[in-house]
Amino acid sequence: MADPIVYDIRSADYLDGGAVDKEMRRVFDACAGCRRCLPLCPSFPDLFNRIDNNPTQDVEGLDAADMRSVVDLCYQCKLCYNHCPYHPPHRWMIDFPRLMLRARAARAKKEGVTFQDKVLGMADTVGKLGSWLAPLSNWANGVRLNRVLMESVLGIHRDRNLPRFHRPTFSKWFKRRRSGLSRPAQAKVVLFGTCTVEYNEPEIGRAAVAVLERNGIDVSMPPQKCCGMPFLDGGDLESALRVARENVASLHQAVSEGRDIVAPGPTCSYTLKHEYPHMLDTEMAREVAAHTFDICEYLMRRHKEGKLDTNFTAPIGKVAYHLPCHLKAQNIGYKSRDLMSLIPGVEVDMADHCSGVDGTWGFKTQYFDLSLKVALPLVDQMNAANAKVTASDCPLAGMQIEKARGEKPLHPIQILWKAYGG
Fold this sequence. Notes:
By secondary structure, the chain is of the alpha/beta class. The protein is 54% helix and 7% strand. It is built from 23 helices and 7 strands. The strands form 2 sheets. Strands 2-1-3-4 form a 4-stranded parallel beta sheet, with helices on both faces. Strands 6-5-7 form a 3-stranded parallel beta sheet, sandwiched between helices. Helix 15 packs antiparallel against helix 16.
């Protein structure tokens, strides 16, 4: 039986290398005897291959390089947690994704956060700089020589398509806009904008605000930072905790004023719901989590209550929709698919495959080719759907789809706004 303390970041042993190695071997041994997660991500085939082909053919035969490889190949899709028959509250207490995050944090404590992970973790800093320099930053990201240099210095693959920066940022637009409410508000929400909406795709945020206000919902946007998941990806636990505390303080104030929190990004909503209570272990974090919704989840909740405007006037046609891993991991059902299906004449072909980008992982030179391979089943289904419109809630998955198909998917909230005639 596992000691629950192994996942408690406040434990003195949490970042201890020996304790981490011992726990990894316990979990890897259970995984080797089960192998249910073999098709989920590259970590598991790598683990089982290394176990089966070492002299002892068990976890004791794994050396430090073997352990490191398994950790590095985990891209935090979170799917193995729900797939695992031994996750908490089972007495074996197996939480593979959190164990991989623990291993990265322990490594970062010993070796330091790599320069590659430092840069990829600073989503807010990079976003602010890129938006301030736009359109020059977008031009530079398209220059081959600059991309070769970025690959050499930052470890971002030269062929990885990068998000475009926008000026002004979404939050600046939000502050200047006039409210679109035409009647007294029926509900109040905070929009957790996400880094992508803030710096790269403000059109998603504008569509979200328009849809919410059309449905009589007052939208606010208090101070907020990156959710912190990119920091966790690189083992930078201290920075992740810092932004988590700042976000919880700001968002909890809004919750105490009667607002729910909606996020158009699956990774961000997952982090607020599932990582913040675990990381901070405070009542404030738990209250923020309890009031956080993926934006399509929130709108379908309104629909269930008979409060969603379904007066759709514009035709959309068939939609090839990608279900992101971090939405699936939330165990909320297929809310985006169901929401789009409310539009008359819409047929949704849902692709339940990983895109292989998964946070910072698919940007890295060492995993770029593998990320494209992981995405092949998704791309094949998207191609076979022969749909008029493609969609994904996940902006990083959208980048992968765009690279493979030359077509940028819409967020489901954009499709909803189009169906309203927006």
